[in-house]
Amino acid sequence: MKEPVKIIASLASLLIIVGLLVAFVFAKTIPIRIEAEKREREIALRAMAPEADAIIPIGTWTPYPRKEDEYFKIKVGDKVTGYIISTQGRGYQSFIRILVAVDLDHTIKRLDVIWQGETPGFGEEIEKPKFTERFTGKRLENMELTMINEPGKIQGVSGATVSARAVVTGARLALEMAKERISEESQ
Amino acid sequence: MFKNGIWGENPVFRLALSLCPAVAVTTTVKNGLLMGVSVLFVLVMVNITISLLKPFIHPKARFPIFMFTIATWVTVIDLILSAYARGVYAEIGLYIQLIVTYAIVFSRAELVASKHKVIPSAIDGLSMGIGFTFALVLISFIREILGKGAIFGIPFAESSPFLLMLLPAGGFFIVGLLMALLNWIDIRFLGKTPISGGGH
Prior knowledge:
- Chain A has helices spanning 3-48, 129-132, 161-182, and strands spanning 54-64, 67-76, 79-90, 95-103, 108-115, 145-146, 154-155.
- By secondary structure, chain A is an alpha+beta fold.
- Chain A has 2 domains: 1-48; 51-182, no CATH class.
- Chain B has one domain (3-189).
- The model of chain B has no long low-confidence stretch (mean pLDDT 84).
- At the A-B interface, helix 1 of A face helix 3 of B.
């Protein structure tokens, strides 16, 4: 046999074997992964509205181009009591994933940072209740970041200004979307 | 041969290979340990596979074959971790995929696995992997205490005592200091001239 043929044959046979191996592991792990992702989402949504009887998806929207997200309605009994919007904010080195729960009149009830990939040691500050609690009771016109404590605005975190601004921007996009779309949609 | 990877030729402290993960993921012991164990798994499996396939590997095509083999085992451990260790995977997932490019795996495949039988190759992978894990755990233990103010994830300080240690620069400081410490122990107590890093 010629040399190139030998090389191609040895590479091809190896590729077939490793392909089968990867396919086998993928098939074994994918159901567990999907299940775990679903459960994590469920827990995160549940934490946003502990009083809810049901959290029902309404539709999808795009806070940033090609970044699709969902939004949900909170049902207590038969009544819709608010909405949960999954949104994102462009941080220092990652897209920060945020959940925002709003009332029917679009006041923030609760904001959670679900995931962030910001600088270790600084980025964690925006996940803490100390920061996320500053959003409670705020409305669209309050979505502005300040460095000093000003009433009616969101105070930033020193060392994590860009990350904190990303959370404010994500929340603002969510509230703008809520104002535009959710008010006229079916309750 | 077994002790070789842990002390004499420790991948991080002596060979100075794969410093990227040694600095990037070692902010908590949990992350460092999982990264070390992943590399250990990849090293052992790659060494076994390469030494088994040795008769069929055409010498001219050996680099692509090493690459395929490493990529396969990295994909396997990546899929497993993303299913079973999701919390840690969210933090270090990116670096797990980067194991493909770690010089330590490739150099062991070329230097050891392609020249030795299965058992010695596996032992070498195990030894190098344990050495790597030991290094990562040691670095992350120090960085977690200084940077996060926590031991094994349990915080003892309100805020970070020494924030620099969490940043990449702090990682390099720790790696350098530990390298110096190991060399000092070698000279002072074992009467050896230490081999310097960057050999291959």
